[in-house]
Amino acid sequence: MDLSNKVAVVTGSGQGLGLAYATELARHGAAVVINDVDRATADAAVATITAAGGRAVAVVAPVGPTETARKLVAAAVEHFGRLDVMVTNAGILRDKVLWKMTDDDFDAVIDVHLRGTFTCVREAVLRFREQGEGGRIIAIGSPAGQRGNFGQTNYAGAKAAVVGMVRTWAMELQRAGITANAVCPVAVTAMTETVPIFAPYIEQMKQTGELPAVIRREVGMGTPEDVAGLIAFLASDDAAAITGQAFSVGGDRLALWSHPQLTATAFHDGGFSADDVAAQWPIVFADRVESVGEEFPEEVLAK
C-alpha cells in the first residue's frame, strides 16, 4: 500500500484512534497534518511519526469552527504542497440521560463531531476541486449512531448525522472523483473505558495485553491499531471506486453497515386513518419492528 504521493489531515490525532490513523498513513508514506487541542500532545505525536521516518506537522486548534478547518487545509498545502485525504476523527463525550443533559452538553458534542466534520470536509473539498485530482473523505462515525446508546443523545445523534452526510457527499462529489465513506470503529480508548460492559475486558487488557476472542471477534473490539489499516486502505488508490459506505471495524472483525431500507409495507386506498393503521399494525408490522442499542453475546453480558 503506497501512499507516498498522498497528504492527509487527521483531526483529533494527538492520541488514541486518531494517532493510530495518522501513524498508519505515515507508515505507508503519506505526509500527515496532526491536530489536537493540546500543544504538548500534538508535538509528541509529530515526534513519534518523524522519529519513524515519516512526515508530519501539527495544528493546535479545536475542531468545529471554519477557521480551524481552514488552518488544517492551509497547513497541508503550505508544508506538503497539496491535500488528498481528510479524516475527521476529533471527538468529545458529554454523556448524560436525556432529562439531565444540558444545552451545553448537547452543543459541545454536536459542535465537535457534527459541525467539525462538516467544516473540515467542506474546506477539504474546496481544495480537492481546485486540484482537480479527486480526493478521499473518511468520516469517523460510531455504532452508537447506527444503533443508539443509552446516555448518548448528543453523541449518537451527531454520529448518525455524519453517516447521513457521507451518503449525500458520495452523490455530490462523485463526478469530481472524490470518495466519501464513514468508518465506525470499536477500540479500547479513553472514550470506551467509561462503558461499563467493556470495563472488565479493558482491565484484563491492561493486565495481560490481550483481549479475549469473544471481544475481538463477536463484539469487534480491539486496539486503535486494529482500525488503522482500513483508514489507510480507504485513503489509497485501491479504494477509488468505494464511496457512500459505512464500515464497522474493530478487533478481528471488518464489516459493512446496511443503509436503511423499508422492511414492511402496507397500502390502503385513500390513505391511512388512525383506525386503518391500528388494523394493519398486527398484520403487517408488529413482527417486523427492530431492536435498538448494541447487541452483545450472552457471554459478554453475563460477565
Task: Note the main attributes of this structure.
eight-stranded mixed sheet, globular, 14% strand, 303 residues, Rossmann fold, alpha/beta
Brief account:
This protein is an alpha/beta fold. Helices cover 46% and strands 14% of the residues.
Task: Characterize the structure shown.
It is a single chain. With 303 residues, the protein is of the alpha/beta class. The chain has one domain (7-256): NAD(P)-binding Rossmann-like Domain (Rossmann fold, 3-Layer(aba) Sandwich), CATH 3.40.50.720. It is built from eleven helices and eight strands. The chain has helices at 16-27, 39-51, 66-80, 103-131, 143-147, 153-173, 199-208, 213-219, 224-235, 274-285, 298-301; strands at 7-10, 31-36, 55-60, 85-88, 135-140, 178-185, 246-250, 253-256. An eight-stranded mixed β-sheet has the order 3-2-1-4-5-6-7-8, with helices on both faces. The longest helix is centred in the middle third of the chain and has 29 residues, at 103-131. The two termini are 40 Å apart. GO terms for molecular function: 3-oxoacyl-[acyl-carrier-protein] reductase (NADPH) activity. This is 3-oxoacyl-[acyl-carrier protein] reductase. Belongs to the short-chain dehydrogenases/reductases (SDR) family.
